[in-house]
């Protein structure tokens, strides 16, 4: 898949190296003033909206592969590594599940731990399906100079023991989208690049029987 980056020459000293890999870090007033002057055009934003859909689609395909116990281990491991590359450093996944009394339980895990656990869920078979992106919010520029948006997807999860369904639910997931300036060490330039951020489970319900 060809990826289109928006490249803007900027002196390397404009931003500290510590900006990359920290999603919500305080910045100096000098950096803030510089970042305020560096903005994406409306046409650039439209490009990133399309890239958002591509990134989310790529992520959901990786999740389906990782969860599928019928896939070869090598392919599942590769999908795990490729999925992590899509995320901003420190991204987390909120997992929700339905208890026997109908309540919803939630836990937040680092993305790497979530993906590793997904491979070893205690089911003989796991089927994960995703519906199309329901909504991509408008990008807004944060005080840190990055742009933020949210993409919403619907995930259907089914875990089997033999031919019997042990657990199933449908979860609405909200994926944070981050556009950040990332320095290219070869060209000593910074380019706008899109990442996936924290994922929240905003709603979980039982699967509707056909």
List the helices and strands and how they pair.
Blueprint: E1 6-8, H1 29-37, H2 42-67, H3 73-85, E2 92-98, E3 104-110, H4 111-119, E4 125-130, E5 135-136, E6 140-141, E7 147-161, E8 164-184, E9 189-205
Antiparallel strand pairs: 1-9, 2-3, 4-7, 5-7, 6-7, 7-8, 8-9
Structure description:
By secondary structure, the protein is of the alpha+beta class. It has a single domain, classed as Nuclear Transport Factor 2, Chain: A (Roll), CATH 3.10.450. 27% of the residues lie in helices and 38% in strands. It is built from 4 helices and 9 strands. The strands form 2 sheets. Strands 1, 4, 5, 6, 7, 8 and 9 form a 7-stranded antiparallel β-sheet that branches. Strand 8 and strand 9 form a beta hairpin. Helix 2 runs antiparallel to helix 3. The longest helix has 26 residues. The protein is globular and about 55 Å long. The two termini are 36 Å apart.
Throw out a few tags for this protein.
single chain; 210 residues; alpha+beta; Nuclear Transport Factor 2, Chain: A; 7-stranded antiparallel β-sheet; two-stranded antiparallel sheet; 4 helices; 27% helix; 38% strand; disordered N terminus
């Amino acid at each position: 898949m060809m990826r289109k980056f928006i490249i803007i020459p900027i002196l390397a000293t404009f931003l500290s190296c510590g900006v990359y890999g920290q999603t919500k870090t305080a910045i100096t007033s000098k950096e803030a003033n510089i970042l305020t002057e560096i903005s994406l055009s409306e046409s650039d934003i439209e490009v990133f909206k399309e890239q958002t859909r591509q990134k989310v689609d790529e992520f959901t395909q990786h999740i389906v592969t990782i969860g599928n116990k019928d896939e070869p281990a090598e392919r599942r491991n590769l999908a795990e590594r490729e999925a992590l590359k899509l995320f901003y450093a420190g991204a987390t996944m909120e997992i929700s599940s339905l208890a026997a009394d109908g309540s919803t339980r939630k836990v937040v895990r680092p993305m790497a731990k979530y993906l590793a656990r997904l491979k070893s869920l205690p089911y003989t078979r796991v089927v994960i399906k995703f519906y199309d992106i329901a909504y991509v919010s408008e990008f807004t520029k944060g005080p840190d100079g990055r742009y933020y948006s949210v993409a919403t997807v619907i995930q259907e999860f089914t875990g089997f023991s033999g031919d019997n369904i042990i657990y199933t639910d449908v979860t609405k997931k909200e994926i944070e989208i981050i556009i950040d300036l990332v320095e290219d060490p070869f060209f000593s330039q910074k380019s706008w690049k899109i990442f996936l951020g924290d994922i929240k489970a905003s709603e979980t319900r039982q699967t509707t029987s056909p």
